[in-house]
Amino acid sequence: MKTTHIIGILVIAVAIVLIMTTAGDASQYLDFREAKDLADKGSKSQIHVVGQLKKDLAGEVVGIQPSDDMLSFSFTMVDENGKEQVVYHPNPMPTDFIRSEQVVIVGSFHQDRFVADKILLKCPSKYQEKEIHQ
């Protein structure tokens, strides 16, 4: 074999090892029950939970509690299986948080409270297709 072939094989092997090690650290999409079970087993990994903000019968968002200094807040979120969970976010409330259709939180459980390091929002789009009347 030529030295260029050997170098090429080594570069590919290193790339494969790097991809496999970073893929092992990737966070997972779970519901609150699975995330709590994982935390109870001692896992400190970051977890994605998808859900919606808790709403009352009139469709108004409920369960948001800002801190006294307005630098953090907690809210109640309902995951895709219908389980409610109080979530704490150590940063100010994102813009259009209350208007979001869907929320993805990234974080982990600490005791009985989910601490969200990041909040990703899916807000209603002003670019939604409208029906065209002719």
CATH H-level superfamily title = Nucleic acid-binding proteins
The percentage of residues in β strands lies in 25-35%
Q: Quaternary arrangement of the chains shown? A: single chain
What is the number of strand segments? Answer: 7
Total of domains: 1
Second-tier CATH architecture:
Beta Barrel
Strand order of the largest sheet: 2-4-5-7-6
pLDDT < 50 stretches: none
Helix content: 10-25%
- Briefly, what CATH class? Mainly Beta
Enumerate how many helices there are, as a single number. 2
Largest sheet: 5 strands, mixed, barrel
Rg over alpha carbons? 21 Å
Tell me the series of helices and strands, N- to C-terminal: HEHEEEEEE
Mean pLDDT reading: 86
* CATH topology type: OB fold (Dihydrolipoamide Acetyltransferase, E2P)
Categorize the overall geometry: elongated
Structure description:
This protein is α+β, with helices and mostly antiparallel strands and 134 residues long. The protein has a single domain (28-122), classed as OB fold (Dihydrolipoamide Acetyltransferase, E2P) (Beta Barrel). The chain has 2 helices and 7 strands. The protein has helices spanning 3-24, 32-40; strands spanning 28-30, 47-53, 65-66, 73-79, 84-89, 102-110, 113-122. It has a 5-stranded mixed barrel. A hairpin with a 2-residue loop joins β6 (102-110) and β7 (113-122).
Distinctive features:
about 130 residues; alpha+beta; 7 strands
Task: Give a quick summary of the entry.
By secondary structure, the chain is of the alpha+beta class. The chain contains 2 helices and 7 strands.
What layout of secondary structure does this protein have?
Elements: H1 3-24, E1 28-30, H2 32-40, E2 47-53, E3 65-66, E4 73-79, E5 84-89, E6 102-110, E7 113-122
